[in-house]
Structure formats: C-alpha cells, structure tokens
Specification:
Layout (H helix, E strand, L loop, with lengths): L3 E6 L6 H14 L9 H8 L5 E8 L2 E10 L4 E4 L11 E2 L7 H7 L4 E8 L9 E11 L4 H11 L3 H15 L3 E4 L5 H17 L9 H11 L7 E9 L2 E10 L3 E9 L8 H15 L4 E3 L6 H6 L2 E11 L3 H21 L2 H19 L1
Parallel strand pairs: 4-6, 11-12
Antiparallel strand pairs: 1-2, 2-3, 3-4, 3-5, 6-13, 7-12, 7-13, 8-9, 9-10, 10-11
C-alpha cells in the first residue's frame, strides 16, 4: 500500500521543485491553464493574507497533490483569494482519491468555502450548492476566425463597435491600444474607475480592501511567464479611456478588472478595448479568454461557449462547521432565491443602484 502524508506550508515556502511539480500535475489534469490555479497566484495572495496555506500531499515521498486555501477563525477555510479568484480547487495527480473532510481535518479546517470551483474537481463538486456558468471566448484558431463567428452570432455588434472606435478617433483624438502596458498611472486610473463603478452599482468596493489593491500591484509588476498580470490600455489623444487588468498563463487569459472613463461612455471604449485585446491575445498565443461568472450583456455578445463553475462548501461536523452554516448559509440561500427569479433579481439590482446613487451624493 502506498504511504501518504500531508505537509502544510505557507505559499512562499514552496520551492522551485514544488512549483514545477504543481504545474506538471496541472498539465496532466487536462484542465485549461487557468492562472488562478497556479502556484504563483497562491504565493502572491500569501504576501498579504496571513492565513494563506498550501497542503502538499505526498505518496511514498513524492508530491502528488496541492491544495491552496486560507484559514480563518474557528478553522473556517476558504479558497485562496476568495472574492477575486475565478478558478478554485485542488491540483491532484490523476487517480489520487482523497476524502475531502479528512483533507480538511488534516489542514485544521472546519469548513472550506468556494465560489468559482472549476469543473472536474471531483473531490469538491459533490459539495456544491449551485452550478453557475463562466462564458469564455475561444481564439485558438485566430482572431479572423473568431470575428467570423462574432458576425454570425451577434449581427451588428462588430460593425457598431468599430464605428464607435472611428468616431472616438475623429472627435477626441488618435486612438492607440497597448496590449501589455507597464503604465502605473493607467493602472491607478483603472482602479479609480472600478471603485466608482462598484459604488455606483451598490456593490462592495474591492479596491477598498488593501490586500486586493496590493495583490493587483504585485501581479502587475511580476514577470513569471506561467502566471502574471496583464494591463491593457486604450488611449485617445494620449490619455487612457479604458483599461483591463487580468491574469494570464501561456494559453489562458482571465478577464478580471475591466473599466472605462465614463466621460467617454458614448464611444463604448470598453467594447473597443475588448476587441483590440482579443486580437492581440490571439496573436500572443492565448487560446481562451475566460470572462468569469456573472451576467453581463457584453459577455453574451463576445462568448463562444460556457464553462460550468460551482459554488458551495465542504463542512465538517462540529462547532466550527456549525458556525460556518449559521454565518454563511442563510445569505447564500437568499442569493440563490433572488438569482433564480429574474424579476426579483432585476428589482434587487435596481435597489443596489439606488443605494449607489445615494452613497455618491
């Protein structure tokens, strides 16, 4: 019988060998190379999240699995980077079978919460309470092939967006796009626009949380080809009018923080940026752009298909698990109730927007 043991480390305690093995196992899984399940992302989160850990599963002395997580009060755990991570789970050698509650016990966790568990995570999918979808854009066959599909599936969308780009150039000034911008001022502008959007729509401002701002800035300055931040900027007359900051691997780009200057909203600079970025990403070897879960009309126009993702939690019996259920399950059930009723969801969205307007007065 193979002998298994578990070693819990901080992400920055993983060495080059562990990073190499993690990425090798990830490749063996056949899952897309989503950068949120890369050791570099776990390490970046660990710089500002003291509860960040990685459980390394060994079999006969060889690493066969990695489980990144964050540990909080009463042993309540969550996916590493929960709230900003768009792909979550464990990285395991094919054929490895682990009881999820025993894994949590070995990590000192009473629960483990996820909100973007990727498909194929057989260890945790049975504990999901909701199945969501993440729209994606396939550009592996090239941008020309993609725009052919776009014309067929969204008649007028491409034509209208390109017309607005030309109007922006005529009425504001020269339009310039930079795919991989190292522009700290543009990154700060993006965070200001995004914060204003969160407030305007009544949502929690992610950039009001110092650890998220620090994480974005750290990833923006990184240079790991397997997982690094990518800032793309659309300029008009020399000033940024739209920007996106995402996370990329060699073949997958995760759509993360898009925003634009509302003073130029009539030109749809965000959509212009999207198209320019998809074209540049296809030329750069990106095969798939993951737009992330959550409804948005532009995602419906741009997507080529959808990937399933899951929300839920593994909960162990005991005081910590009971505390998790009491603190989280009612809110989760309420969100499901609203989400499953379009008219109610629309009313809730309008109420949040009104809260945002009152907050900005």
């Amino acid at each position: 019988m193979p002998r298994k043991n578990l070693l819990v480390l901080r992400p920055d305690e993983l060495g080059p060998g562990e990073h190499k093995t993690w990425r090798h196992l990830r490749g063996e899984s056949g899952a897309p190379e989503n950068p949120f399940l890369d050791p570099a992302f776990a390490t970046a989160v660990g710089h500002d999240r003291p509860g960040a850990r990685v459980a390394v599963l060994h079999e006969d002395g060889t690493a066969v699995g990695f489980f990144p997580y964050e540990k909080g009060l009463l042993g309540q755990g969550r996916a590493i980077g929960l709230g900003v991570s768009d792909s979550q789970g464990a990285v395991l050698h094919p054929g490895i079978r682990v009881d999820p509650r025993r894994l949590l016990a070995a990590c000192g966790l009473s629960s483990w919460e996820f909100d973007n568990l990727e498909a194929g995570q057989h260890l945790f999918v049975p504990h999901a309470t909701e199945r969501l979808v993440s729209p994606v854009v396939d550009i592996g066959e090239g941008f020309a092939s993609y725009t052919g599909l776009l014309r067929a599936n969204a008649p007028g969308f491409l034509k209208q967006t390109l017309a607005k780009e030309r109007r922006l150039a005529r009425q504001v000034g020269e339009v310039r796009f930079v795919y991989d911008a190292r522009d700290p001022d543009a990154l700060r502008a993006l965070m200001r626009w995004k914060s204003a959007q969160y407030r305007r729509t009544g949502r929690r401002d992610r950039f009001a949380q110092p650890w998220i701002t620090a994480l974005v800035e750290r990833l923006a300055s990184g240079d790991d080809p397997e997982c690094r931040g990518l800032l793309s900027v659309l300029y008009a007359a020399g000033r940024p009018v739209a920007a996106h900051f995402g996370l990329r691997s060699p073949t997958v780009l995760s759509w993360w923080f898009p925003a634009y200057d509302r003073d130029y909203g009539k030109y749809s600079p965000g959509l212009v940026l999207h198209l320019r970025m998809l074209e540049a990403a296809a030329a750069d070897g990106i095969r798939m752009v993951d737009l992330g879960s959550g409804p948005a009309r532009y995602k419906d126009s741009l997507k080529t298909r959808e990937l399933p993702v899951y929300e839920g939690a593994v909960v162990r019996p005991g005081p910590g698990g009971a505390a998790y259920r009491l603190s989280r399950e009612p809110a989760r059930a309420a969100r499901r109730f609203v989400r499953d009723r379009p008219r109610l969801a629309g009313a809730a969205r309008r109420a949040l927007e009104e809260v945002g307007r009152l907050r900005d007065r």
